[in-house]
Write a structure and sequence with these properties.
alpha+beta; three-stranded antiparallel beta sheet; 4 helices; 6 strands; about 25% helix; globular; iron; metal-binding; DUF971 domain-containing protein; GBBH-like_N_sf; GBBH-like_N
């Protein structure tokens, strides 16, 4: 499958900085990512965001001020992020978090372009 890492690096540290709304993830291969809560919320792997198949994605709007209120481990492979807007159904695998960090610039630019095309805003109404 394209895009999968040959061996998913394991996180060595996950730190939530609620004041700055950043989730910091450090990996065993030396990679370190600072992922904004808003980015994680709009990139949630949940069906609510991704839909049930390609083309059924749901553009998330008004999430600029969202924060994470809990990071809950799920086995040895993922975390469940609990957001202050009530969203908590996405499981963020180590591999997915790594991909989000590695590809952040492109993914964020794509999200902003989708918002613009939809005439939508990051700000809550």
């Amino acid at each position: 499958m394209a895009g999968l890492l040959p061996t998913t690096p394991q996180p060595t540290e996950i730190k939530l900085h609620q004041k700055s709304k950043i989730l910091e993830v450090a990996y065993a291969d030396g990679a370190q990512f600072q992922l904004p809560c808003e980015f994680l919320r709009v990139s949630s792997p949940s069906a609510e965001v991704r839909g049930h198949g390609v083309g059924n994605e749901v553009l998330q709007v008004g999430k600029a001020n969202v924060n994470i209120i809990a990071v809950e481990p799920v086995g040895n492979y993922a975390v469940k992020l609990v957001f202050d807007d009530g969203h908590d159904s996405g499981l963020f695998s180590w591999e997915y978090l790594y991909e989000l960090g590695r590809d952040y610039d492109v993914l964020w630019a794509n999200y902003l372009a989708q918002l613009a095309a939809a005439g939508a805003s990051r700000e809550a109404k």
